Amino acid sequence: MDATTIALIMLSSVGAAFVQRVSGFGFGIFIMTILPYLLPTYPEALTLSGLLAIMTSVVIVWKMYKFIVWKKLLPILITFLIVSWIAIQFLDKVGDGMLKHILGGMLILASIWFFFFNDRIHIRPTMTMQVSMGTISGAMGGLFGMQGPPAVLYFLSSTDHKEEYMALAQCFFLIGNGMMSIYRAHLGFLTPTVGWAWCFCLPTVFLGTWIGGLVFNRIPIKTLRKIIYAYMGISGIIAVMG
Questions:
Q1: Global pTM value
Q2: Residues 6+ apart with CB under 8 A from 173
Q3: Cβ atoms of residues 3 and 194 within 8 Å
């Protein structure tokens, strides 16, 4: 990788960590609009995204571990781990170009969802719903690194206060990204390029998390989210047309 590519990857990790800290999710959604065009292959981009996302969750889980209610977490998490493993097996069988086009379509759909439907739909935190959301999240995470939306929708509906929500969501992302990283490494996607990029981006991930913490209470969250959703939609259109 040349210096320009490294700089762009580091900059994108700052933005993704910032989004994750302010919104509670969105690291993969943000960074996967950029990484597939900077890494040699699409699976390498997914692997780097997952490894970096782990770092944004580990500190929060450490601080908020006492708020985790395991019966609300384990069914959706176990379902996610199984389905994401199955989804990752397809990465070797589908060309990078097709995956980027599908990713573009997913970004467009996610943008439309968040703009128009996210605040209008509420779900009941039943076992069936946990398995359903875990299945959708596993497929989206394994193929696109975008497991957040279905999981967040469930956690928001099943928790009693923001501390419990944040603890459950970040524990889900931490364990989920950790296991998907192991799956991807087993398939050969954890390359030296990914390793070097991860090392370069560690400081920038913590920088983005720190900046996000500073501005968390100063930026209207609805305004920020709309900007992010618009960015997702535009990035998706570019990916589909590319």
A1: 0.80
A2: 25, 27, 53, 54, 56, 57, 147, 148, 151
A3: no
Its domain, for residue 223, covers: 3-241
User: Do residues 53 and 198 make contact, with C-beta atoms less than 8 angstroms apart?
Assistant: no
Give the integer Cα–Cα distance in Å for 94 and 199: 28
* 3-state SS track over the chain: CCHHHHHHHHHHHHHHHHHHHHHCCCHHHHHCCCHHHCCCCHHHHHHHHHHHHHHHHHHHHHHHHHHCCHHHHHHHHHHHHHHHHHHHHHHHCCCHHHHHHHHHHHHHHHHHHHHHCCCCCCCCCCHHHHHHHHHHHHHHHHHHCCCHHHHHHHHHHHCCCHHHHHHHHHHHHHHHHHHHHHHHHHCCCCCHHHHHHHHHHHHHHHHHHHHHHHHCCCCCHHHHHHHHHHHHHHHHHHHHHC
Residue pair 22/224 in contact by the 8 Å Cβ criterion: yes
Which of the residue ranges 2-6, 12-16, 136-140, 232-236 would you say has the lowest mean pLDDT? 232-236
Domains in the chain, number = 1
173-220: pLDDT as tens digits:
999 999 999 999 999 999 999 999 999 999 999 999 889 878 766 767
Measure the CA–CA gap between 135 and 148, rounded to whole angstroms: 12
CB atoms within 10 A of CB 223: 9
